[in-house]
Amino acid sequence: MGAGQIALxxxxxxxxxxIGAITGGNSLVNVPLMIxxxxxxxxxxxxxxxxxxxxxxxxxARFARAGMMRRSxxxxxxxxxxxxxxxxxxxxxxxxxxxxxxxxxxxxAALVVFIALYRGAEAPPPATRHRRLAGYAGTTxxxxxxxxxxxxxxxxxxxxxxxxxSLTMMESVAITKPVNLISCVAASIVFFxxxxxxxxxxxxxxxxxxxxxxxxAHVALKRGDRFVRQLFLFTVAALAVKLLIWDLLLRR
Length: 252
Fold this sequence. Notes:
mainly alpha, 10 helices, globular, single chain
């Protein structure tokens, strides 16, 4: 990648980092772009993971400053995520890219239906024992997925926290930032060990993500839960269309 291509990616990631701090899913845009401008798929996934780490740092700091963190829930979610995301990174090169796109695309389509039906509710469903157990099981599975690719991981975790742990959409968006930070750190350690992170590209993209993450979290806190829900629904719908129609059908 030349300097111009790196600058282009950094500019785009400033925008996707701001949106991703609220909705997630930015890796579904970042990684294909990085591959398109010359990186190998493995390096693109690994370098993006390193860069997105900095988006989660700034977004976590902004949400924590606003007192939005549920620390009692963050500890078990973080512990599960660290182990499972490291495992996911270890098997990153084993999974077919087409399979990943099918699974994530179908998940995004299902999320569009769920959020469209749920957005009028005044409060999240109560966190029963069975819902919490399902939430921890889901966190385990998503942690593996987040470690080997990350695209859509935060989006799925956000909805899981609403359904299983009785958080509002804003609370879910806030708590998934440190959880995603833990996932990115665990995976990045493995990717660095494998020599897959290109720091010449990764450092400028990390800077863009750092700024974008702070902007996104700040906007979410200023605009409130209704804005977060609307942006979340729109972004999930757009990602579902990209994955199911553009990536899997039109580009065959």
